[in-house]
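Sample entry (617 residues):
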Amino acid sequence: MVSTSIPQESKSTQASQRRTGAFALMDSLRRHGVKHIFGYPGGAILPIYDELYRAEARGEVQHILVRHEQAASHAADGYARATGKVGVCFATSGPGATNLVTGIATAQLDSIPMVAITGQVTRAAIGTDAFQEIDIFGITTPIVKNSYVVRHGKDMARVVAEAFHIASTGRPGPVLIDVPKDVGLEEFDYVPVAPGKVHLRGYKPTVKGNPRQINAALKLIAEAEKPLLYVGGGAIASDAHAQIKELAERFQLPVTTTLMGLGSFDEYHPLSVGMLGMHGTAYANFAISECDLLIAVGARFDDRVTGKLDEFASRAKVIHIDIDPAEVGKNRTPEVPIVGDVGQVLEQMLESSRGSDVSVDANLTKPWLKQINHWREEYPLTAPHPEQGLSPQEVIMELNNQAPKAFYTTDVGQHQMWAAQFLKNGPRRWISSAGLGTMGYGLAAAMGVKVAIPDEETICISGDASFQMNPQELGTLAQFGINVKTVIINNGWQGMVRQWQQSFFGERYSASNMEVGAPDFVLLAQAYGIKGMIVRDRAELGQAVAEMLAHEGPVLMDVRVSQDENCYPMIAPGRSNAHMLGLPQKEQPTAEFVNCQSCGTTNPTANKFCPECGNQL
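Predicted structure, serialized as tokens:
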């Protein structure tokens, strides 16, 4: 978790001076270490932008002018995910503020620390339906961790300090600060507030786990024959990568991750079973169905992970570790609930195991690991090679081969799931909208990543439909020379919508084809002064990716892929994790599998019904 404490201000800097609310805001942001702000000006926020002009002239901050406020919130979100620091975005009142809403909701559902600052009409005009007045405080209340309307300039420093503290501690999340125009202009005796110097009654997140619960968890781990570590985004938020690795290796725990948890554990490690859930690996989903102990670490038992909830890990006892007490037991009642920061709780578990006789009998878990490896061999992730054109998976694998350590952002849809399956990311290098599933997220988030970490390769993987949600941000890349590489997996469809329509809606492709009216992406890039490329077949791919990566500047690459490729495995709606579509049929059932007597389909023994014909097994 990001620390907000810095050395105490000297007495001379604490002395009050006559300043404006806008100055207090910008000075407070500086004191909280803000170096970059993503935003778009407008009438109500002009006093703040006027002070921002002075701060930029002093070299204190850089403002990145986006082309749409939604991109400002997504860029701040990407900035936060890549660094662990609080991302900051600005927007004016009315439509400027409402354009932030999707990005704020994206950050809220994925627990991303962000402070969104909006302009507002003057205090006297609030409630009169003045020009560009909107109750952004009320609109965003359900999708923020906390909100403020600054009524007096003298409150500004305190509000900013509280906002940063709330956004970055406990379970992270977005905080909104709404600033009436005349508050920005109001003069008062300004006294700065140092980061972390806040007093919030009732807000004190629990970070240490209960020792008795930790001992109970260790006892279950020692007794388990088929344990499974299930890791979510909370592990990324608390930078718990080292602790997860040590715990997994010490107790020989196979590790599966959620979409948000990707990068928390090395996917080349022999204990890794990859992502689980709707489009997770077959071996991860089989492992969930067969495990006898599930150790949930910073995960919230999301429906895209669990499938049919009452059949999710139905044979397992559950240990649930999370910093948010509201999540523990919300969807699945654990035998051992532990509330606390994931990194600190895991460190406590490791310390307790070092100082006790708790150990794992390798003979207990050896057959389990052998079974998982058998599933891995039987049902590997593979990239098809269609006779005509490229498969999307081939494109992802080529990117992973040539840029294995890049920061990757994605949009949402089939390309997102293929990227999750085939990229092997390090900590904080996988950046994707998981909870809200926001199309148009990828390019803007990549801008935030590259601004935050300019020396690292940053690649946005998008789809032709998703990219068209926010293509105007090519202008931001061009203006600021932000060296983001964007690869469009172009199949001419809203790919995931088409797949669902094919699988569950009788192949009635309603409003999902994107070919008519699609732009020439190469010409679009060139119109913004950016290098555009197109790849049409397999023979061009490797060289084209190398050329893209070698180019000094942003690139937009349009890769034409097979139009009818679907993303598998896939758990059908309302089914358990063991009911996956798209798996190859085996002539003989493997260990712990049974053939359906009606249709012959191979099923795990955990299945109660055959997913193909519905017969009871």
